[in-house]
Write a structure and sequence with these properties.
heterodimer; A: about 425 residues; mainly beta; Rossmann fold; Neuraminidase; 5-stranded mixed sheet; about 10% helix; globular; B: about 190 residues; alpha+beta; 60s Ribosomal Protein L30, Chain: A
């Protein structure tokens, strides 16, 4: 199954036309709607790459879509500007309001492959900011475009781009559950697991090669680790009772998990291969949703030990739990940001479950959405966006919001429920 | 519990059950095997007044026998214990139902029971999985206090993943906050 983003009509007709050329037949479409953008977007002109029109269009449209979707760029109409890697129409681009300019060439090589070159310019300084060249197969046109987007994004924003990353999520349709993996732009969707029983809590290993998840296929929750390259998987935790909420340690060797083998839901760690189960914390009530801090020092988790579900943290090797959330009667699903400075979670506010972010130094919290059924937040590896599940019109959709709350996107598949998103780490 | 109190509280619990189930008939395909919805069958006999008490063994079927599980008039016909939002304590109104099932377990030590805990869809899936487990465990503990054996009873959670009712209404959510007691052959 392939997923592709559809942009709303406010985007350039060129882009829309290019997207309509994408193969659609028989495939569920993941449609995206951008509902908010950053305050100070960088105006950028991306001229059509020189080369075979079909290939150029495929490549250029992906670069434009990537940068536009980030919410940090405003696309300047490039029609009429000279294109190509060597062209540098600084003055013309600047006159149209572009601060940055991208031009490139994609050329077929004798061995049936392609060579793509591009340069990035600063139109204000009339200077070249850099460029790259890639040799690639025709099947890697989109991947090459994402690498170009990553380069431009990093040069102009100073932070690493996430266009070459992937997302995992669960699609429920016609009584079936599918664990799917797609590129960060929703394209190239592939089914990793299909089941008649629920699949929940997929989460990427730090090396991006494996997913841990909970499957009910054995009529109860069991944790699996699934190697995406080979399609092979193994049971990581199948003890008496429930096995759920897997979270990778930053070194990828262990999983924090929730087991009920000794009573109610409690925190343990277990080797990713299923070896060496160790109790981590102890409470009379519910402890669940463990999540390592990026430095591996802490494990954040949800517990009702204080009478209502709240977020706590405990040293990764145990110790006393410290309460982290105090406002409201329901704060769950902690997700530390990649820089460890903030924490995303779901809070209940007047009956609405909303994605919230807390600055861990000041303990100031900010509700990031105006929706009512947010779940399962997952940070992009650069910490800029948070992907989460929510519900619109009774149907599960994915949404993304920037950590500052400004950039907003919605992603959906017609006639299907989509939930449990997880954003991959950087591709190595 | 004395027999007379028991009969009265059974009717009370049947009324409460009917109220808890609401008017929305659940989608049949979402009913776990062996779980019978009281709102369809009118379990517990007449419910139009506290004076029309239906004797537990009116059909002559011993309420601690396995045959009673299929008898709509029996105290063990109902399998569901319903819970309040975000809670896992068994409410008083369901204690007679749990008591009746405990008696059946004691009388039939060879029979096994699977308790499936469920939660309504609101909030975190993983937290709801843990909540469903707590609910199933609460039913298991109550049954064991009344003589059920650990080896007879397994408690598992389905979290919010197998809702009996899928409307976004309080009466529907109330149906999904429950523990179901299933016997050998029913799961």
């Amino acid at each position: 199954m392939r997923l592709s983003y559809n942009f709303s009509m406010k985007f350039s007709p060129l882009l829309l036309a290019a997207l309509l050329l994408a193969p659609l037949a028989g495939r569920a479409q993941l449609a995206i709607e951008i509902t908010g953008a950053g305050a100070n977007r960088i105006p950028i002109a991306i001229t059509d790459f020189n080369g075979e029109p079909g290939v150029s269009r495929a490549l250029t449209s992906v670069v434009r879509a990537d940068l536009e979707r980030s919410g940090l760029f405003r696309l300047i109409e490039p029609t009429g500007l000279p294109g190509g890697e060597t062209a540098a129409p600084h003055a013309e681009a600047k006159a149209r309001g572009a601060d940055a300019l991208v031009g490139g060439t994609v050329a077929a090589t004798a061995d049936g492959r392609y060579e793509t070159r591009f340069r990035l310019h600063d139109t204000q300084k009339q200077a070249q900011l850099g460029g790259q060249a890639y040799g690639h197969a025709s099947a890697q046109i989109r991947a090459t475009a994402h690498r170009i987007s990553d380069y431009v994004y990093e040069k102009l924003t100073g932070e690493r781009g996430i266009f070459s990353t992937r997302v995992a999520y669960v699609v429920k349709s016609a009584g079936r559950y599918q664990l799917q993996i797609a590129d960060a732009d929703g394209d190239n969707g592939q089914v990793a697991l299909s089941s008649r029983e629920p699949i929940i809590s997929p989460t990427w290993s730090p090396d991006g090669n494996r997913l841990a998840y909970v499957s009910f296929e054995a009529k109860k929750p069991v944790i699996y680790v699934h190697d995406l390259g080979s399609g092979r998987r193994h049971v990581a935790a199948n003890f008496k009772g429930s096995n759920s909420a897997p979270a990778w340690s930053p070194d990828g060797k262990r999983l924090a998990v929730v087991l009920t083998k000794d009573g109610s839901s409690q925190l343990y760690t277990v080797g990713a291969d299923g070896s060496g189960v160790t109790r981590l914390a102890s409470s009379a009530g519910i402890d669940t949703e463990p999540q390592f801090s990026p430095d591996g020092q802490w494990i954040y988790f949800t517990s009702d030990r204080g009478g209502s579900p709240q977020i706590y943290r405990i040293g990764a090797s145990g110790g006393d739990a410290q309460r982290v959330t105090f406002d409201g009667g329901y704060n769950v699903t902690p997700r530390p940001a990649p820089d460890g400075k903030s924490l995303a979670y779901i809070s209940r506010n007047g009956g609405r479950f909303q994605l919230t972010i807390m600055d861990l130094a000041t303990r100031q919290a900010q509700v990031l959405t105006d929706s009512a059924k947010d779940e399962s937040p997952s940070f992009a590896p650069n910490g800029r966006m948070i992907l989460y599940a929510t519900e619109i019109g009774g149907r599960g959709v994915l949404a993304a919001v920037s950590a500052d709350g400004r950039v907003k996107q919605k992603l959906s598949v017609p006639a299907a429920d989509i939930r449990e998103p997880s954003w991959s780490p950087y591709v190595k | 519990m004395r027999p007379t109190t028991f009969k009265l509280s059974l009717v009370v619990s049947a009324i409460a059950l009917l109220a808890a189930c609401g008017s929305q008939p659940p989608a049949p395909e979402q009913n776990p095997a062996g779980v019978v919805d009281g709102s369809k069958t009118g379990v517990g006999g007449p419910t139009t007044g506290a004076t029309t008490v239906t004797p537990v063994a009116a059909t002559g079927i011993d309420p601690t026998s396995l045959a009673a599980l299929k008898d709509p008039k029996s105290a063990v016909f109902n399998r569901s214990v319903f819970f309040d939002y975000d809670q896992y304590a068994i409410k008083d109104e369901f204690k007679p139902l749990v008591d009746a099932h405990a008696k059946l377990l004691v009388k039939n030590p060879g029979i096994k029971m699977l308790i499936q805990g469920n939660a309504d869809e609101r909030g975190s899936r993983e937290y709801n999985l843990a909540l469903g487990q707590k609910r199933a465990d609460a039913v298991k503990k109550a049954l064991m206090l009344l003589g059920g054996q650990e080896a007879q009873i397994e408690s598992v959670s389905l979290g919010e993943e197998k809702p009996r009712c899928t409307d976004q209404t309080e009466s529907c959510w109330a149906q999904n906050r429950r523990g179901d007691m299933l016997y050998s052959g029913e799961f």
